[in-house]
Design a protein that fits this description.
The complex is a heterodimer of chains A (about 280) and B (about 270).
Chain A: H1 2-17, H2 26-56, H3 58-67, H4 69-102, H5 108-120, H6 123-134, H7 148-173, H8 176-184, H9 189-218, H10 221-226, H11 237-246, H12 250-281
Helix pairs in contact in A: 2-12, 3-12, 4-7, 4-9, 5-7, 6-7, 7-9, 8-9, 9-12, 11-12
Chain B: H1 6-35, H2 41-48, H3 50-83, H4 89-96, H5 98-101, H6 104-115, H7 123-128, H8 137-163, H9 166-173, H10 178-207, H11 210-216, H12 226-235, H13 239-268
Chain lengths: ~280, ~270
């Protein structure tokens, strides 16, 4: 009894005294400070240095780095192949997600693991793996090494999981009764898919597509062994940056890197808009 | 029930399975087959090569340190983002995801510009104080920590949001201090999310290539990691060693995702 009597006033006093959850106290303030310092030293300051170096080189350096025929070709190749791969992912990713959620067959759990392999596999190994089936010693007789198709193949491999993994959870939570209602009202299966299912999948597909495009723009490791990095033909933007670094031309490297950062930033902003719009709809 | 017609279902099934087999399953199994085409010889040859063993040790060392840093930073920042209000929170939350969209080559360039000891922003000062970052392990750890940074946070934040803070408040009001509340209440409920995030970070860290290639200088038996060995051996026509090293890396990463897929249902139940 006594313990309860002494505990009760103490408890209510502490509740009154304790700051509302959400205000920063001494310890959490210090924690935030340390975390922000580390984040700045690791991410923010280095990325700012890239932009600052590009700007410090002056507009002319920026323009000459980007107007360089080889750089132009590399940026064009990177953007087109990323776009093509993203379109393929939108169709194949949605199909695979559909099969994983709605279909049932022997070996489906294995398929689920196979989809995560491109995420987990080191990029250089991804290149080596693709070279084993689509390189010089291809058992299929298909050799795409050192061609544009190799760039496509590598990007398709590394970006495979994005659309699948964003669409899958949405499809799982989709209410079946809405489809049944549409069907009972006389909608054909195609109409049900187009008018009922597809609209709820679009935000997820868009988010997955944005991620896959951003990854395509930034890809490097899987292309090293596979594409041969031939100037004007199979050289991508990140390889171009590396060449500039190796030649000691930091300003030009930073200029191309800034363009890549801008694309990445645009994608992040786009994703944020999509997610906020979805949150509002809920 | 609105079942998909059998024909369409088979068509979609064949399309999905065919795509995955041609793009992922078949190529991956070929690398496994090539590694073991002479039995264990390829693996044994690779493991007796000091270049390979040193690189594997380097990879493990760098990855483990980077994962520990990301674990502490990730759990801390997740708690701050979910449980506290401060100006610029939304901004920070958006910036946290930036490393996922930055090219590894740009990551390498960014660290190079700030930390190289010749004309970097901080590099010369750090060098004078005896800390070499670029072309040494600190830079490699930073590059690895950079690329894997959001993985723990992305796993922990949704779980923290879902469990709410009622239990934590109850613990606080019963007299537990911050450390006790975290250890007894918060940590047990986010345990699986943390483990999941760590496994993903480890897989990502073991496999980092582009960023590490730039900041490490790729010095054989000094700063060369396993992924860099794969590239070098393949280009030097030591393909069996390249396949064997690639197999070791692939095996480690596949083990990671299998662990994750075993953990997942447990987390749900």
């Amino acid at each position: 009894m006594t313990s309860i009597q002494t505990a009760l006033p103490g408890r209510s006093a502490r509740v009154r005294r304790s700051p509302r959850v959400g205000a920063l106290t001494g310890a959490s303030g210090l924690g935030l400070g340390v975390a922000l310092l580390w984040f700045s030293l690791l991410v923010l300051i280095p990325l700012a240095a890239v932009v600052a170096t590009a700007v410090a080189g002056g507009w002319e350096n920026f323009a000459s780095a980007l107007n360089n025929e080889q750089t132009m070709a590399a940026v064009r190749l990177t953007v087109t192949q990323s776009a093509v791969v993203t379109v393929v992912n939108v169709f194949m990713g949605t199909t695979i997600a559909w099969v994983l959620v709605r279909d049932r067959f022997w070996g489906k759990p294995v398929l689920d693991v196979v989809i995560d392999i491109p995420f987990a596999l080191p990029t250089i190994v991804a290149g080596l793996v693709l070279l084993a089936l689509y390189g010089y010693e291809s058992p299929l007789g298909i050799n795409v090494a050192n061609t544009e198709k190799a760039v496509f193949l590598a990007l398709a491999f590394v970006t495979l999981p994005f659309v699948v993994r964003t669409v899958q959870p949405v499809l799982e939570e989709l209410e079946r009764d809405v489809e049944e209602a549409a069907a009972s009202l006389g909608a054909s299966r195609l109409t049900t898919f187009r008018r009922v299912i597809l609209p709820s999948l679009v935000p997820a597909i868009a988010a997955g597509a944005a991620l896959s495009f951003a990854r395509g723009i930034s890809e490097y490791g899987s292309l090293v062994l596979l594409s041969g990095n031939l100037p004007l033909r199979t050289e991508v933007a990140s390889v171009r940056v590396l060449t500039y670094i190796e030649n000691g031309d930091a300003a030009s490297a930073a200029a191309v890197a800034t363009v890549m950062l801008a694309i990445a930033l645009a994608v992040i902003v786009l994703l944020d808009i999509i997610q906020r719009r979805v949150a509002r709809r809920d | 029930m609105t079942e998909t017609p059998v024909l369409v279902r088979w068509l979609l099934r064949i399309l999905a399975v065919g795509y995955l087999v041609l793009l992922v399953a078949w190529p991956v199994s070929l690398v496994v087959l090539r590694t073991f085409e002479n039995g264990w010889t390829n693996l044994l040859t690779a493991f007796s090569d000091p270049v390979v063993t040193h690189a594997l040790q380097m990879t493990v060392k760098v990855a483990v340190v980077a994962v520990v840093i990301n674990l502490v930073f990730g759990v801390g920042i997740s708690l701050l983002l979910v449980r506290y209000e401060f100006p610029g929170k939304r901004m920070l939350s958006a910036l946290i995801d930036v490393p996922l969209s930055v090219s590894p080559v740009v990551v390498g360039l960014a660290l190079l510009l700030v930390y190289n000891s010749r004309d970097g922003w901080f590099g010369p000062a750090l060098q004078d104080n005896g800390l070499q970052v670029i072309f040494a392990s600190p830079g490699m750890i930073m590059a690895t920590a950079f690329v894997a940074l959001p993985l723990v946070i992305r796993e922990v934040v949704p779980v923290l949001e879902e469990i709410g803070d009622e239990q934590e408040q109850a613990a606080r009001s019963l007299g537990a201090n911050a450390v006790q509340t975290f250890r007894r209440i918060t940590l047990p409920s986010i345990k699986w999310a943390v483990v999941y995030g760590v496994v993903l970070s480890l897989a990502r860290s073991l496999g980092e290539f582009g960023a590490v290639k730039i900041v490490s200088g790729n010095v054989v038996e000094k700063t060369q990691t396993a992924t860099l060995v794969v590239e070098q051996k393949y280009q030097n026509f030591e393909q069996s060693t390249a396949y064997a090293t690639a197999f070791v890396l692939a095996f480690a990463s596949v083990i990671c995702i299998v662990i994750v897929s075993i953990l997942r249902p447990k987390e749900a139940s």
